[in-house]
Amino acid sequence: MKLEPGHIVDLVESWLPAPSSEVSETLRDLRKRAPSFVPTWLSAVATRTTLPDHLAHEIDEARRRTQLLRTVRDTVVEVVPGAYAIKGHAVADRYPSPLVRTMMDLDLVVTDVDSLWLIAEVLRDQWKAAVQAVIRYPARAGGAFGEHCVIATVVAARDCEFELPLAIDLYTHGFAGDIGTVPARREIGRAPRTLDEHRSGGA
Questions:
Q1: What's the rounded Cα separation, in Å, for the pair 102 and 61?
Q2: Hey, CA dihedral for 91, 51, 63, 161, is it positive or negative?
Q3: Which domain of life does this protein belong to (predicted)?
Q4: C-alpha span between 97 and 101 (Å, rounded)
Q5: How far is CA 87 from CA 31, 95, 104, 157, in A?
């Protein structure tokens, strides 16, 4: 089924205890319940009626931010062809025009640590981004903890065009786990069981 603006409007109405035909009332409730969904809902409503300038600007800002993050992604993929986006960005690419999805940051998976640092250098050179944090912990590799998952958060210089700075999270594993009982995995999805796990009946 293709996602349509009407689906978004109906979805938001289903969230509210007393749906209203007034944009201002629905907007007030939605900002309290799901503020990150506001631009998506506004972009759907805009296909039915003309919005005030300040709300139209809110849609445009969300669209510009998403497009900038797409530009960052495309630039990174040119440098490291194996890199790919996950989480919100992967979902946003499936939204049909003119719907827009709020994008606060960009999550990228790379194949190895060297690629991660190469991307960090590209972000530094082109967007004046700096590494803010690095996490490194044991990751599951073929049933053994012989490798490490590395996560680096890179934040670009604040742009006066956007209220919030752009953040890019770089992962060496598609599924980062929880740094505890749930191990990181290279691929997203259920990891195949090892021979020893099959013999023991483990998951």
A1: 9
A2: negative
A3: Bacteria
A4: 10
A5: 22, 14, 11, 23
In degrees, rounded to 5, the angle at the alpha carbon of residue 160 between the alpha carbons of residues 159 and 164 is 65
Q: Rounded to two decimals, what is the model's pTM? A: 0.76
Q: Quickly count: other Cβ atoms within 10 Å of residue 7's Cβ.
A: 13
Q: What tens digit of pLDDT does each residue of 29-87 get?
A: 999 999 999 999 999 999 999 999 999 999 999 999 898 889 999 999 999 998 988 88
User: CA distances (Å), 193 to each of 56, 141, 189, in order?
Assistant: 51, 11, 12
Tokens for 176, please give them: 């980062």
SS3 196: helix
Query: What tokens were used for 49?
Result: 């009626």
